[in-house]
Each structure stands twice: as structure tokens, then as C-alpha cells.
Amino acid sequence: MSETSNDVQTLVGQLIADRYLVEKLLGVGGMGSVYRASHVQLRKTVALKTLHPEMTRLPEAVARFEREAIAASRIEHRNVAAATDFGRLDDGTFYLILEYVEGESLREKLYREKCLEPGLSLHIAHQITEALQAAHVHGIVHRDLKPENVMLVTRPGAKVHVKVLDFGIAKVPLEGSPEGITAIGSVLGTPSYMSPEQCSGRIIDERSDLYSLGIILYECVNGRKPFESDDALALLALHMAAAPAPMNQDVPSMVADVIVRLLEKDPQDRVQTAKELLGLIDAAVLGHQATVLPLDTGRQGIRAKSLILNGRSGLARLKALGTWLGTRSYSGFGWCKRHAALRIRVRGLQIPLGILALVTVLLGAGCVLLVTRLWHAGGSSAVAAASAGAAVAQPESVLPKGTRDEFQRQVERIEMLKAYERSERDWTLLARGYAELGQWQKCAQSYRSVLSLRPSLRSDPLLLSDMQLAAQDPEGFKLTLNLSETVLGQYGVDLLWLVWQQIRHNPDQAENAEKLRKKLAVLSHRARPSLRVAIELDFFQNCPNLEGVVTRAAKFADSRSLEALEALTKATGCGPRLEYDCTPCVRGEGLLEKAIARARETSPPPLGAD
User: Fold this and answer.
1) Mean pLDDT computed over every residue of the chain
2) What residues does each domain of the chain span?
3) Which helix (H) or strand (E) element contains residue 514?
4) Residue 496 pLDDT more than 90?
5) What is residue 92's three-state secondary structure?
């Protein structure tokens, strides 16, 4: 073989190591070349990677090549291109045999399509995460995760399959060198995808790969990177200090939340493990699938029927039924006839679905919901429930209940099982048991497992109540914050508001309270309108932002906004002598008075209410 990279094609047609017939040159890089070859005995296609001869004189280049071989050989996973052979030829050329992956890189797909559909992006991210989990188990950190190193294999009738390549600069635990080969303080990687700690040359761990994956996922759903600069040093500085560019408005909130968690500057605030990330992605996938058939499209009947038959509560099912039939006018009669045998359980009473549907068509969904609420409330409270600002009835929990002794026995039984042997019910009993026993950190950890197995429990009032109590524990607080951001959706924002109210005036909890206040501002777009008003009244202090908030408060406010709204009635407080009106913009057309009146007569929904 010639000693110049311009002559590497001379390998084509040669038999390497007495068993690999080189068939085609696939690419040439600064350090080596990649060929397609065939194992002559096994008749199997492989990828042959060689190190340029001049590179063999550079110890670091040889070390990287060996490191890739070690890393790829240790990781046995369907989403990692496996290494099967490694050696050195008589002329000194190092070679590495890898699994041959035929497809296109994620970079090529992004060049062609620019932006990927959220469902496909999550599917790809899930497989990359599985590959990282397999590497991290062995203490291997990839350190150069980017779209170029992610291959997509498409098979007829099957979803895209991912293969992660190129562990050439991976951090691999080697005997006598806990940090692998690269010295602490050196900066390796591709600037667009490097973590803040990688950019600054600090010690990195598995969380650095998760940050890089966050950049990739951001790019997939937005069609651009979160940080852009032609200057490599400026790009490193952006990773270390700047906030990511705002995401496109059409990015689903649960997908955006996963990305935000991955792109935290401080590794301690980031998603901690690949296993945790898999749970977040699974929840985001379920959330995305639940919104692909919105009720106001031509396919609304499919979505409404799913809610009607599988909804969490009778009132939720009635609401879906009424909304759907209300858009179909009297054509709903035919649907009632076909499904006359179906029943809905409302407040413990089995009611034939056909009867409810008929009443809905004749009187409207609002009348049916009003009747059910009046029937449930009874007496004088029914009159209050008829008003627009009525409190929503407390939803019922499906979680197990029992005595402290019963839960103690269950906890002891389940703790004897290995984690992978525990069923969904075991995890649920464990979470409830820890709550009854006051072991709040373990309670929050168990609920994290419960929600990864059954995300639909995110609205369960007992689960949310337990998590509210768990937040009083320092470690439980972190887990509650994490689950509220990533899995619990609007119910998580309700939960964080309640926790904030509990600790905001406690000087010992000042740091956590301020963290929650900022987090609520960030998550306010996910909150129900009434809570969003309360959050923004706290966050915005001056006109003109307050004018828009008060306008919405007149329509949506509940008692959570009352204190802030009443504070706005004070027409002084600004100027050198505090004699001027700070917020004149809120006093027009009686909006502030309307908002206060609504807040006084409207109770907030209980935890878990729709």
C-alpha cells in the first residue's frame, strides 16, 4: 500500500489479512479510509476501516483507532455498529472490521428534508438513547455524537432502524487510566454538538452524550441548530453561556420539554441517565400520539370515540361525546342506534350511552354536563355548580388504598424483588406504601417508575397529592420538579403552583421557591388558562403586559389570582414620592373589577381535574 492517502484506492481488489476482499472505497478522511469488503470464507459484507500509514507515527492517532476498536467490540447492541476484528498488516497499516451498515446518515436525511416529523424524530432519538445506554453501562462515553455518526437503515414494511457509529474519540475506561486516553483539559468533539463541560475541557461523563443528543433532537424538529456561529470559539462560548434559540411554535410541548431538559448547562440539572431519558421519550411519544387526531378535524369522530370508550372519567367521556355529537347535528342518532348497548359510568352509576347521546343531541352537551354536576352536588351546592365559575368535582383515584400495616407488608414483599421483576402494580403499591410510611424520596422514585409504565396516571389525584408531599423532601423536590416538567403535563404545572404556594414564604426554602417561580414562568404555556393568568400576574409587574393578562383574567381567573388582582387596585406607588399610578393600563372599561369579581366567585380545580 502506498504511503499517501491519494493512493489508497490501490487496496481495492486486494485480500487483507487473508480473508477480507476489498471491493469498493466508500470514503477517505484525514486519518484513514473506509472500504466495503467481503469475508471470503463467510461470504459476509463488512466495513473495512484503515489508518493512513503516516498516521501510525502519531501515538494519539493510533490510540484513537485502538479506542474505537475496543469501544465497538465491548458494546453489543442492535443500535451500535459492532466491531468484529482488529489488527495490523505487514506494512504497518492498522485495520478495523466493522458491521457493514447500508443506508443514509441522519445528516444526509436532514440535508434533504431539513426538518423531521416529531414522531420520527422521537423514534430516532429513542434508538440513539438505547445505543448510549448500552455504551454507558461499560463506562464508555461517545463524545462525538452528531448526525453524521447516526446511520438510518430503512427496510420495506419496517420503521427506520438506527445504528450509531464512530467511537473514535470515545472515553473508554482502560486499565491504569480512569479517564481513558485523552488527558483532562483537552477539548475533543464537534463544536456544534459539544456539551458545555466538554467545551471547557472539564471532566465529562454520560450526561455529556445526552446533551449532544438534545442538540440532535432540537435540529430534527426545528430544522436548525440551537446555536449557530461560523467561529468555532464563539460556538463553544454559546454552548457554555447562551440560552438556545427559541423553538418553532409547531414543536409539541412534550417534545420541547425533553429538549429543554437535555440542554441544561449544568449536568446536575440535565437528564441524568439514558434510562431516565427513555422514559421521557416514551411519555413524549404517547403525548404526541394523543394529539395527532384533534377533535376539530374531519377525523374527529375517531378521536372522540376513543375518548368516549377509553376516557379516564365519566365527565371526560361525556364532554367528548357532547363535543363530537354537537358538531354532527342530528346525524348523531344513527351512531346512538349502533352503539345503544354501550354504557358510561358517571359517579358510580351505569348510564346507557345511547340515552346520554340522545339527550346530548336534543339539549346540547352543556346541559348534560350541567345535569350530571347538579345531580352529583345536590342541594344548595347544586345552585353554585350551575354558575360559570363553579368548582370542578374532585376526581376519583384509581390507586390502591389500605392501612399502614397492609402497605408495610407490601413494601417488604416488593423490596425483596429485583427491579426488573416488579410489575406495574408492584411499583404502584410500592409508591403508595412509601407515601403512607412517610419515605418521600423513595415514594417519588417509585412514582417515576409508575409513570414510565403508565403515563395516563399523571392526572390521578392521589398520585399528585403524594408528589406534593414528597416535594417537601430535598431529593423528593428534585424528582417532583423533574416529573412535573417532563411527564405530568398541565397537571404538573398545577402541582408546582401548589408546592410554590407552600414554600414561597419560608426563608429556609427561598432557593427552591425562586427556582419554582422561574420554572412556572417557563411552563406557563402548558397551564390551563386560569392558572396561566395567576402565573403571569406574578411574573409581569408593569404595563403593557399586564393589560393583556387582566383582560384574560376577566374571562378565566379563579381565586389563585385574587391577591395579585386586588394589589392592582392601588393607584399609587410609583414616582419619587410614590404618588403616581404604576399600572394605569389595567383600569380601562372596568376590566380589573370584572377580573376581581370572577376570581372571588371561582374556585380553582382540584388536583387531577380536567
Assistant:
1) 76
2) 5-99, 104-289, 300-385, 404-526, 529-601
3) helix 510-523
4) yes
5) coil
Quickly list DSSP for 246-257. PPPTTS-HHHHH
Mapped onto helix, strand or coil, the DSSP state of residue 486 is helix
Is pTM beyond 0.70? Reply is no
Phi-psi region of 49 (alpha: psi -120 to 50; beta: other; left: phi over 0): beta
For 512, left (φ over 0), alpha (ψ -120 to 50), or beta?
alpha
Output the CATH code of domain 5-99. Answer: 3.30.200.20
* Residue 330: pLDDT over 80: no
Select which of 144, 466, 473, 494 is catalytic. Answer: 144
Task: Quickly list H helices, 188-252.
Answer: 196-199, 206-222, 232-241
Q: Rounded to whole angstroms, how far apart are CA atoms 332 and 336?
A: 6
Q: Summarize pLDDT for 108-165 with one digit per residue, the tens.
A: 999 999 899 998 999 999 999 999 998 888 888 888 889 988 999 887 777 889 998 8
Return d(Cα 507, Cα 414) in angstroms, integer. Answer: 39
Alpha carbons 587 and 401: distance in angstroms, whole number: 50
Annotation marks residue 144 as catalytic: yes
pLDDT in tens, 341-379: 344 444 344 445 455 545 544 444 444 444 433 333 333
Range of lowest pLDDT (29-43, 330-344, 506-520) = 330-344
- CATH number for the 104-289 domain, one of 1.10.510.10, 3.90.550.10, 1.20.1560.10, 1.20.1260.10? 1.10.510.10
